Amino acid sequence: MHPFRKAVEAHDLDAVEALLAEDVVFTSPVAFKPYPGRPLTAAILRAVSEVFTDLRYVREMTSEDGRDHALVFVAKVGDREINGCDFLHMNEAGEIDDLMVMVRPLSAAQALAAAMGARFEQISREAAAG
User: Fold this and answer.
1) pLDDT tens-digit profile of 82-113?
2) Which residues, 6 or more positions from 33, have their beta carbon under 8 angstroms from its beta carbon?
3) Alpha helices for 1-130 (secondary structure H)
4) Residue 41: CB partners within 8 Å, gap ≥ 6?
5) What phi and psi values does residue 123 have, to the nearest 5 degrees?
6) Are 103 and 110 in contact (CB under 8 A)?
7) Which positions ≥6 away from 58 have C-beta within 8 Å?
8) How many CB atoms are located within 10 Å of the residue 5 CB?
9) pLDDT digits (tens, 9 = 90+) for 6-45
């Protein structure tokens, strides 16, 4: 089991943050441009942990070299079931330097966008303080 998955499933957001490279790039399923840096990525992931309920990983795939991982999940956003995948890339030091999330169906992605949009000020404040 990948340490990111283990930390997410344990709701250990400090452990999740510790796995991120300082220069990590987060690509959101509902935003046009990627978000750079550990403080902002950690703040986004903390907000997502409040938005998603009943999150469970259902599949994990790893590249032959061990640097790329795909973690397939199911969760709820409000009353909508969402299916998604966390794509992780590990740098030479074993830290996550690229995290891209993709989700479906569209109605759940729209619910996620609305819920995260409502938290964006909080996310920005947390990232600035971190």
Assistant:
1) 999 999 999 999 999 999 999 999 999 999 99
2) none
3) 3-9, 13-18, 38-51, 106-117, 120-129
4) 20, 24, 25, 26, 35, 99
5) -60, -45
6) no
7) 72, 73, 74
8) 17
9) 999 999 999 999 999 999 999 999 888 999 999 999 999 9
108 vs 19: CA distance, rounded Å: 27
Whether cis (ω within 30° of 0) applies to the bond prior to 105 is yes
For the whole prediction, is pTM greater than 0.85? yes
- Please report, as a single letter, which amino acid is at residue 63: S
Alpha carbon distance 46, 53 (integer Å): 13
Residues with Cβ < 8 Å from 70, sequence gap 6 or more? 59, 60, 61, 62, 85, 86, 87, 88
Instruction: Give, in order, the Cα–Cα distances in Å from 14 to each of 10, 24, 42, 83.
Output: 11, 16, 9, 25
